[in-house]
Please model this.
Amino acid sequence: MMTWNTSSEAGADPTQEILLLAMKAGQIQLENGAEIFRVEDTIMHICRAYGLHSVNTFVLSNGIFLSCGDEDEPQFAKVLQIPVNNTNLRRVAEVNQLSRRIEDDGLDLETVRRELKRIEEQPGFPAALQIAVAGVSGACFSVMFGGTPWDFLCSIVIGSLYQAYALYLGSPHFGRIVRSILGSAWITFLCILCYRFGPGQNFDAMIIGGIILMVPGVAFTNAIRDMADSDYIAGSVRMMDAMLGFFCIAIGVGFVIALYGILAGAPLLP
Model:
């Protein structure tokens, strides 16, 4: 993973500095959920804005390959592995806008460096806001699928408790597969409590409202978008990633419902 340094301030090669900044812009976009074509487009926009035309870039879902050089431009090549990160489309949009500003306004390299650092280090949304939004959005989906006002209230609690788990327990301590299985199991357990021992009236509506928060929508959408752009390698990888997420959700839900049936001696739903 690329880190910020001050080598440019000491007089590093301008061509290399441009390429490293372009690569950094691509890294921020890719690790925050951007499509492959957008990352490649941003890198090329930045390089061409500064007069580099022999640049070639190849982007996968977790890596960037960048090379430059011909008889008129110095040789440069770099491979950057990028770990999977949380989705933050605000950062994607800001880097995309920055690449256009470079073309339109001719920003100097120091300004671009500061802007990229600001975008990368900007804080995410407050945890309390994420928990509240998760609860309300999940509750709205429960109503869309036939939930009653009581189901709406239960779904607010379920969605909020799931997001609290994801922020404070799941992400810091578990890998993605275990985190997804435990998260869907936790949602199902809360739905059963509300349905059997609380005011919840429609189990299906409540569990849809909870599970919708876990659906890997960005990965699934990007997979389709990448394959539509004939980038079948990245599209296939992202589609497998999305399908793995669906599979983990199904395991968690199915396990808890089956366990309830065994312990209660009767199926959950008539």
In short: The longest strand covers residues 55-60.
